[in-house]
C-alpha cells in the first residue's frame, strides 16, 4: 500500500495517522516548516489537514505531487470570497453578503445588510479571529486594511448552530454522520452533541446541500458544513474541506470515525455507512492544563494534543459515548473546570435528550 502523506502535523494529522494504523496504512503527517527532502514515491498519495499553507520546502514538495487529492479545491474554499461564490452559484442558502472592495463604505453595508454586519477576512481567521463587527448604532467604519481583504455578511439571529460531516469516495458515493449541535463561545467551539432526534427533520436537507457542493467540486474525502438554523431553514455559515472539530465525537460514537473515513476515501478503500453507537458529546479543551484525574470519569475518552497551553488555544478534547444518560449527566457534574466551562456544561445538560 502506498504511503499517505498529510500536509500539516497538528492534531488533525496525528488523528489521521492514528486512524490509518489499524488499516495497515503508513500515514505520515509533515510539519510545514520541515526542510528535509521527503522520500515521496510516484504512487504515494497526499492529503492535507488544513485549507491553506505557506510556501515552504515541505509544502512545495507535497503540493506538486500528482496524487495530491483535492489540490484544486483547497484554494477555492480557503478564500471566503470564492467559497461564497460557490454557494451562490449552486443556489445554496447562506447569509446575505458582499465582497469588501477598496471603495466599500460602512453606509453601503448598513443599507445592504442591515444595522449589524460581520466582516470576515478572506483568508485565515478561525476560532473568532479575523472578524470585525460593523454596528450602525456605534457608527463603525470599515478600516482601510480590511478593504479588498474581506467579505461582509448580514448578522444572523440564529436559533442554533449545527454541522454536517460527510464523506465522498472517488466513485462519487457519499455517506453522512448525523447532524451535530454545537456551542461556540467567543467564536470558539466548546461543545458538541450528536445524534439528536429533534435534528432528524433537517438531516436530508443538509445532506442534499453538502452533496451538491461535493459533487460540483468532485471532492474526495471528508468535508464539514457549518450551518445556522433559523426556524426550519438552514443557512451555510462556513465549509471545511477536511476533517473537522465538530466531528471529533465520531471517534467514540461511530464504528468508522471521520478520520478513518477520510483515510479510506483518499486512498480508495471501501466506504461504508457509519453505525452510530450511542449518545455522544464532545468537550474541547481550550487553554486548560492536562488533568489525568479526568480519566476517573466514566465514559470519558481523553485526546491530548501535546501542545503548549495558552489562553484560547485548543489543546485537546474529551469524548463521551453511552446509552445511559445518567452516566453522561454524572460525567458533566464531575468536570470541575474554569470559566467559561460552566456555561458549556449547562448547555450540554440542557440539550441532552430527556
State which percent range the strand residues make up.
Answer: 25-35%
Name the assembly state. Answer: single chain
**Which whole number gives the mean pLDDT?**
97
Record field, number of beta strands: 16
Q: Overall 3D geometry?
A: globular
Any low-confidence stretches, pLDDT <50, length ≥5? none
Q: What count of helical segments does DSSP give? A: 10
Report the CATH superfamily of the largest domain.
ATP-grasp fold, B domain
Distance N to C terminus: 47 Å
Here the CATH topology of the largest domain equals: D-amino Acid Aminotransferase, Chain A, domain 1
- Write down the domain tally: 3
Our Rg estimate from Cα atoms comes to 20 Å
Helical amount: 25-40%
- The CATH architecture of the largest domain comes to 2-Layer Sandwich
Helix-strand category = alpha+beta
Largest sheet: 9 strands, antiparallel
Supply the CATH class of the largest domain: Alpha Beta
Listing every helix as H and every strand as E from the N terminus to the C terminus, the arrangement reads: EHEEHHHEHEEEEEEEHEEHHEEEHH
Helix/strand layout:
Layout: E1 4-7, H1 11-20, E2 27-30, E3 45-48, H2 57-63, H3 73-78, H4 80-89, E4 97-100, H5 106-113, E5 116-121, E6 131-135, E7 150-154, E8 160-168, E9 174-176, E10 180-185, E11 188-194, H6 200-217, E12 221-230, E13 233-240, H7 250-253, H8 258-267, E14 279-286, E15 300-304, E16 314-322, H9 325-334, H10 341-351
Parallel strand pairs: 1-2, 1-3
Antiparallel strand pairs: 4-7, 5-6, 5-7, 8-9, 8-10, 8-12, 10-11, 11-14, 12-13, 14-16, 15-16
